[in-house]
Amino acid sequence: MAFGGTPGGFSPVTDARVEASSRHFTRLRRLSTPKDTKALIEQGVRRFLHEVPALEPLKLVVGLELRGRGDIQMFRVELPGPIITKDIASDARVRLEVPRANFNELAVNGTVKQWREAFEHGDAKATGVEQIIKLVVNVVEKQEERSRTRRARG
Question: Confidence class of residue 7 from pLDDT cuts 50, 70 and 90?
Answer without folding.
Answer: low
